[in-house]
Amino acid sequence: MNIGFIGLGTMGAPMARRLVDAGHRVTVHNRTRAREEPLADHGALRAATPAEAAAGAELVVTMVADTPDVEEVVFGEHGVAGAIAAGALLVDMSTIAPGATRAFAERLSAAAGAAWLDAPVSGGSEGAVRGTLSIMVGGDAADLERARPALSVLGSTITHVGPTGAGQVAKAMNQVIIAGTYAAVAEGLVLGLKAGIDVEAAMAALAGGAAGSWGLVNRGPNVVRDEYPLGFRVRLHRKDLGIALDAARQLGVPLPLAALVEQWETGLITRGHGDEDVSAIGRVVREQAGLGGSQADEA
Hints:
Elements (H helix, E strand, L loop, with lengths): L1 E5 L5 H10 L3 E5 L7 H5 L3 E2 L3 H5 L4 E4 L4 H9 L13 E4 L5 H15 L2 E4 L2 E2 L1 H7 L2 E6 L2 H14 E8 L3 H30 L3 H9 L6 H12 L8 H18 L4 H15 L10 H8 L6 H4 L1
Parallel strand pairs: 1-2, 1-4, 2-3, 4-5, 5-6, 8-9
Antiparallel strand pairs: 7-8
């Protein structure tokens, strides 16, 4: 396929690389243009603007940070909407507000005659590198089949969850569950640390039982070591929780645990930990238990 790919951050860059490796003709664009260079060295073409990336593409993928960023790359000056072909397909893999997604899809259809899928992902940077992401897709089922040759390179689970905007609702659900999972993992592990038991051994035992989860296995060691190498940034997860909490308020759904974790993450961001992995929630629980903070906090 001829694919335009816009957004080469922690997730987008390895995703675009996988598409190149799979033999697709990929034209990349990123606001910070230097991030295009490794992809160009790997065989991608470079575009000076989102419009240039979209010109002639059958499929345009956007993977940017937030709702205003999607609006800018699609509808701003030199945006995708000014160049995408009628009948082409835009697949937004960012995590943005469901209501904005529905509005953007209608706007793109009216302006350019192009279709829209919302297809946010879960699985972290590891999943982006390995092509094992879980992809939650909202939009027309026939459009999903058109996009499947590209999406199958990026994810091992591709699920159509409903009409336009439904993918973003599913991603909001995902981020709420992650918030609770990471908080519970941190609390459980800190209990073991304070008790002085072999927590590494305990994690292995827990992973084989009802408490086993991706978060425990892949992020529990971060809490034990009090080190949080980047998988998915705290500040982006806090942004996603804001989307989920806004949707919950509109629907009359109380999310007290998600609201608590959002407060914890706001504190972490204020203290300079916004670009660490979201498992840095463990810092908060460790500190509340008297296990101390980071060197940066103590300085």
